[in-house]
Design brief:
Layout (H helix, E strand, L loop, with lengths): L1 H5 L11 H5 L21 H12 L9
């Protein structure tokens, strides 16, 4: 997935390091490029739930 996303973005200074990507490294861009590409882990469902609870004034929802 990351490879497909980054493919063709060399004009922005993005170049994928295939070995790092295969190892699921947190930094998977090449060392020689200007733009560093990183994996940012998130729990999108928790973020949506928390935002919804805040809008509905239900308080905060904590992740497990």
């Amino acid at each position: 997935m990351r490879e497909r996303i980054c493919d063709g973005l060399g004009f922005l200074g993005i170049e994928l390091d295939r070995e790092r990507n295969a190892k699921n490294a947190p930094l998977f861009s090449s060392d020689t490029v200007r733009v560093k590409v990183r994996v940012i882990r998130t729990d999108e469902e928790l973020m949506i739930t928390s935002s919804t609870a805040r809008v509905l004034n239900l308080g905060s929802i904590q992740g497990t």
